[in-house]
Amino acid sequence: MKYATGHLIQKSQTIAALATKACEPDSISSCEPCYIEGAIHTIRKMGNIAFILLRRYDGLLQTVYEEGKLSVSLSNLHDNTIVGMTGIPVLEPKAPQGFEVHLTNIQILATPSAPLPINISKWKLQTSLETKLNLRPITLRNIRERAKFKLQEGLVRGFREYLSSLDFTEIHTPKIGAKGAEGGANIFKLEYFHRPAILEQSPQFYKQMMVGVFDRVFEVGPVFRAEKHNTKRHLNEYTSLDFEYGYLTGFEDLMELETGFLQYSMELLRKDYARELELLNVELPNTEKIPTVSFAKAKEAVAEHFHRTIRNPYDLEPEEEFLIGKYYKEQYDADFVFVTHYPSKKRPFYAMDDPEDSTYTLSFDLLFRGLEVTTGGQRIHDYSMLLDKIQARGMSTEGMEHYLEIFRHGMPPHGGLGIGLERLTMMLLQEENVRETTLFPRDLSRLEP
Amino acid sequence: MKYATGHLIQKSQTIAALATKACEPDSISSCEPCYIEGAIHTIRKMGNIAFILLRRYDGLLQTVYEEGKLSVSLSNLHDNTIVGMTGIPVLEPKAPQGFEVHLTNIQILATPSAPLPINISKWKLQTSLETKLNLRPITLRNIRERAKFKLQEGLVRGFREYLSSLDFTEIHTPKIGAKGAEGGANIFKLEYFHRPAILEQSPQFYKQMMVGVFDRVFEVGPVFRAEKHNTKRHLNEYTSLDFEYGYLTGFEDLMELETGFLQYSMELLRKDYARELELLNVELPNTEKIPTVSFAKAKEAVAEHFHRTIRNPYDLEPEEEFLIGKYYKEQYDADFVFVTHYPSKKRPFYAMDDPEDSTYTLSFDLLFRGLEVTTGGQRIHDYSMLLDKIQARGMSTEGMEHYLEIFRHGMPPHGGLGIGLERLTMMLLQEENVRETTLFPRDLSRLEP
Which chain A residues are within 8 Å of B153, Cβ to Cβ? Predict the structure, then answer.
């Protein structure tokens, strides 16, 4: 009988582990050889030696190939040849990692069939976004391109770890549904065994249902928006970081929670993702204290400061969001601003109106360097208040029976928010287009790769 | 200027924290009152006192209401009334938590509008699966029902934490695509801005692309299968735990990784989810060593042992999987069995054929108590070998251009697997139907709630 024991897999040889074994150049003969794998990033010939740069998930490693010493000929090695290498790690201050590997053997694991359509070993890919996206599976091999998604991983880790530390439960809710949570035209439709169905544009109803079960929940998952915008900040599918928090004392709790998440995550990036921060030259934003300003006051401040006339008092134009960001950066050195009390008519029916002025809601957006990255707020938890608001809006309760049941049977005061992961990453990296920080974007014209 | 600082949100008062503050019955007068929130689970009247059981995310808490002592009348309190309670925590060996709270004040936060359609405070819900699912947002409030999904959370945490410790990178790949990764009829179709599109039935192609970028990747996300089966083990949308591992030395590495994940997760459940394990009376499976047996040998063993004739030598019937599980439990006390070397004709084109017998593949399923919970294997990483296999199957490469490009430009030897989260949870809890361990199931007849 053979067994799988789970004991064979060890954290494999890493560049960091090799570095600790590197020996002085004058003691090579007594030094132990090591084995390491990766893809050939570049080959640079210098007379009868060649520097082969190895690309691995943990960085680039310089190796030295000496003509005539190895059984594999240099002519059989190319960019993106996949190799296992044996050699002696030797200290070398001029090498990128402070050491290099003097090769004694190379094993070819796979050979590419064609040269790359684009030079990915360049520091910056010198090409258009369009080309980058068309060749995405290949261009992501560029170490700066992939670093963006390593940082994105860090943001997701931060979200989960922070909320888990506060006893939130992680949930997975369905993405195929019978009717859209918030209605509207921006919903993808599909046929589900001869019945009409939709792709969820938000886990809103489900996370509220789950507040009735676990008090505090979060979800990281895809959401789908059939919006016909083709802008630099819109996607038709994106990853949403959602939480919903029961027993809140006010919608301010939600902003405190988001601030806590941002503080935790920036610290996590600083600690565990230093290599990527350096590669991309990222300036971490200030999250110590985040100014909050009401929607109405923010509009006024921007109109006054930048000499603009207010065209629509009930909505923020992208230009206004940008200027709010600019204003708070200039006045308070703030990278983030919470804009609170959005007009009721621009928020969904389940938003809690401000008891002091029902034209507005107990809600907020978070702007990051002038772009909205979060929408959140307190929800109505009282059954009859919810029914009244649905009626006042002339909406039907059809298709919302299951949702309404939770309020009928007692729900705590609660609220929550949704963060667009790709937008958050975009603004963190100060990119101009959200597609730069989306692994495989979906938009009006792009369904592949 | 107001600020959100992130400092106000503390881990709130928990039952465990209260327990540490509970005082002896004879020193109540010097004891500090506490505040705690939750939903009323049950009210049991005993003369002029009543025991009010509070339901919170962290368990049930017994409180004592004494007639005439509080400003809130007992007649205003019902099952599922949402309350904030003030009282003195007092040691009481007979109470479920070893202490109870003597109430001094109750604040009603929300009142239900109607009695529950089903008694959720029962230990076991005495109702059909159909009714449970129809009333899912309410029946999940039952503490045993919700405990299933807390354990499910633990499995997902185990998957992520284990793979992250081995330097895997987490990715988020699109769920709307242009063409199915593995083709076939089981694909949901949708219209995407007047173009045909599909819902991904697996992140297979994308995770392989990302092995070319990060060497080791994983994803936790929804997958969609338009299968017309309505069985106890099929869902049309489920959560898939996927990983893909570059630079493998053989497909056995993948089984070692899965074994490591299972060992790590069972330990995590034992450590952090003891309450739920006890609530559901879960017997954790043996993961120390998992037997591996080839597809052909497993079929033979079962045919011989249970006196069955082999009807189809190239496929395992569900009955045979069940019997393999039974056989290995009886013979080796094994809860899990890896069945290896599946016939090539039953595996997708990208599966690596066994060089010793190309009728079979370097692949496996994991059976858990007789049910398949994982499919995995080594993939072809050589470009021309892949093209040859596509051609030999009479398939077209149309729609796979982006996928094939990664092999054209060098891919390491790699493989991976996909685990059905709901099935894994089902078998862990020894449930009869996968819908029992699916938060909001989607099947042939169910699109809501």
Answer: 169-171
> Reduced to 3 states, what is the DSSP secondary structure of residue B413?
coil
Residues in CB range of B225: below 8 A, 6 or more apart: B186, B201, B234, B235, B236, B237, B238
Sign for the pseudo-dihedral over CA of B208, B214, B216, B218:
negative
Question: Residues of A with CB below 8 A from B331's CB?
Answer: none
Q: Taking CB atoms and an 8 Å cutoff, what residues of chain A touch B332?
A: 1
Chain B residues close to A169, C-beta within 8 Å: 57, 149-150, 153
> What pLDDT, in 10s, does the model give residues B57-114?
999 999 999 999 999 999 999 999 999 999 999 999 999 899 999 999 999 999 999 9
Of B14, B216, B406, Cβ closest to residue A137: B406
Query: Cα–Cα distance between A429 and A151 in angstroms, integer?
Result: 9
Q: Which residues in chain A are closer than 8 Å to B258, comparing Cβ atoms?
A: 4
CA A417 to chain B, closest CA, distance in angstroms equals 15
CA distance B389 to chain A (A): 17
The count of CB pairs under 8 A between chains A and B is 357
Helices (H), A77-184: 129-134, 136-139, 143-165
Nearest to B389 by CA among B417, B418, B347, B356: B347
Q: Which helix (H) or strand (E) holds B216?
A: strand B216-224
**The pLDDT value given to residue B182:** 58
The pLDDT value recorded for residue B154 is 98
pTM of the prediction?
A: 0.97
Instruction: State the nearest Cα–Cα gap between B159 and chain A, in angstroms.
Output: 14
Q: Scan for tokens 């078998």, then name that residue.
A: B427
Q: Put the strands of the sheet holding B237-246 in their side by side order.
A: A2-4, B290-294, B336-340, B363-368, B371-379, B414-420, B237-246, B216-224, B169-170
Among A135, A239, A292, beta carbon nearest to B172: A239
> Smallest Cβ distance to B2: which of A2, A4, A292?
A292
**What are the beta bridge partners of residue B366?**
B338, B374
Q: What is the pLDDT along chain B (449 residues), one digit of tens a residue?
A: 889 888 766 555 899 999 999 999 999 888 989 999 999 999 999 999 999 999 999 999 999 999 999 999 999 999 999 999 999 999 999 998 999 999 999 999 999 999 999 999 988 888 999 999 999 999 999 999 999 999 999 999 999 999 999 999 999 999 999 975 556 679 999 989 999 999 999 999 999 999 999 999 999 999 999 999 889 999 999 999 999 999 999 999 999 999 999 999 999 999 999 999 999 999 999 999 999 999 999 999 999 999 998 888 888 999 999 999 999 999 999 999 999 999 999 999 999 999 999 999 999 999 999 999 999 999 999 999 999 999 999 999 988 999 999 999 999 999 999 999 999 999 999 999 999 999 999 999 999 99
Pick the closest to residue A136 from A448, A426, A434 (CA basis).
A448
Distance from CA of B70 to the nearest CA of A (A): 22
Of the candidates A114, A260, A412, which has its C-beta nearest B109's C-beta? A412
| Contact (CB<8Å) A193/B226 | yes
Residue of A nearest to B212 (CA): A141
| Strand-strand pairing, A82-91 and B176-177 | unpaired
Q: Helix A383-392 crosses helix A401-408 at what angle (to 10 degrees)? A: 140
CB contact under 8 A, B81 and A213: no
**Chain B residues within an 8 Å CB radius of A165:** 11
Rounded to whole angstroms, the maximal C-alpha distance in chain B is 85
Output the six-digit token pair for A398.
């059809």
Residue of A nearest to B8 (CA): A256
Give CA–CA dist B28/B90, Å, rounded. Answer: 7
Residue of B152, B213, B236 with shortest CB distance to A141 = B213
Dump pLDDT digits (tens) for B227-254: 998 899 999 999 999 999 999 999 999 9
